[in-house]
Design goal:
Blueprint: E1 4-5, H1 6-13, E2 16-18, E3 24-25, E4 27-29, E5 39-42, H2 55-60, E6 65-68, E7 77-80, H3 84-98, E8 102-107, H4 112-124, E9 129-131, H5 141-147, E10 155-159, H6 167-175, E11 179-182, H7 196-203, E12 215-219, H8 225-230, E13 236-241, E14 248-256, E15 259-264, E16 267-271, H9 276-286, H10 295-301
Parallel strand pairs: 4-5, 5-6, 6-7, 8-10, 8-11, 9-10, 11-12, 12-13, 13-14
Antiparallel strand pairs: 1-3, 2-7, 14-15, 15-16
Helix pairs in contact: 3-5, 4-9, 4-10
Length: 302
């Protein structure tokens, strides 16, 4: 099964297709230097760079189709739209609407990428898993991640980052997570906020993408836990952490070199990672697992 066809892309973006509608697209790139065979190249345009100028290089590298704002003299399928950034977003949302698997959204001031990788490892033990590559968690990275997601994905882990208020709100609107997790709140990106409470409010925007009753995981030990809970709306809040009041509590059993051992919610969890923070990440993930999954296999995957 191909990731997309040129006709699929035109339909999802409302674009005009020039070329063969059955053209196969098996990957998507916004960087002509990372093109692989049968990729779609999305020619983004910004104040200092217009990727239309390197579209020919992308085709030469193997792109089978291009998403562009004007017709170019290229011998591949071209999908022409008025705004390639908006079209990429539409493409990602179209794919999200097709996926029936479990989608987890993750944000936080620190620990996002590590927790995302731990989640992906656990879910891979349960089924076909799709996750954010590296830290592609911004207004380009999130729709790109969604658009790259295979239709038959069983589990997806989408990381969302921000540098200003409102950015997470826009990303979670696209992701529509089945569960959302805030790793921690601290003074990261403080240049854009008056205080850390405002950062907590901006991170809590992730809960706006949840449906009523969906799990919202919140760090119990964080000073802003109560503020996050107040922003969770109709979500089903689950706290995690090391404190005695956490709903999913982590207790450290100590470290042995590069390994750590914990008891989390009654489960024996051993990770090939050093540091108590990994126990916190594992506890966060156990707090949002969908009902009916094999928790032991997930833990083995982590």
């Amino acid at each position: 099964m191909s990731l997309w066809t040129a006709q699929d892309i035109a339909s999802a973006t409302g674009g005009t297709l020039i070329g063969a509608p059955e053209t196969v697209v098996n990957g998507i790139s916004i960087d002509n230097r990372s093109i692989e065979a049968d990729d779609l190249f999305v020619a983004l345009r910004g104040p200092n760079h217009d990727a239309h100028t390197v579209a020919a290089a992308a085709v030469e590298a193997g792109a089978s189709a291009v998403l562009v704002e004007r017709e170019l003299g290229l011998n591949v399928a071209q999908i022409i739209v008025s705004d390639t950034a908006r079209a990429l977003e539409a493409l990602g949302m179209a794919r999200r609407a097709e996926v029936t698997g479990f989608v987890l959204g993750i944000t936080g001031s620190v620990g996002k990428t590590g927790t995302k990788e731990l989640a992906a490892a656990g879910f891979r033990a349960l089924g076909k898993t799709h996750a954010t590559l590296g830290n592609l968690n911004n207004h380009f990275g999130v729709p790109l991640t969604l658009a790259r997601m295979p239709r038959d994905t069983d589990f997806a882990v989408i990381e969302m980052g921000m540098s200003a208020p409102g950015e997470i709100r826009d990303l979670t609107r696209q992701v529509q997570p089945d569960a959302a997790l805030v790793t921690w709140i601290s003074a990261a990106h403080s240049a854009f906020f008056k205080n850390t409470a405002q950062i907590a409010d901006a991170k809590a925007e992730i809960f706006e993408g949840l449906s009523a009753g969906a799990p919202a995981a919140i760090p119990f030990d964080n000073a802003f836990a109560g503020r996050l809970i107040g922003k969770a709306g109709n979500a089903s809040v689950r706290t995690f952490g090391f404190g005695a009041g956490a709903e999913v509590r982590c207790r450290s059993k100590g470290m042995d070199g590069a390994q750590s051992a914990f008891i989390i919610d009654g489960y024996d969890v051993r990770l090939g990672l050093a540091g108590n923070q990994w126990g916190g990440s594992a506890a966060a993930l156990l707090s949002v697992l969908p009902k009916g999954v094999d928790v032991d296999r997930f833990i083995q995957g982590m």
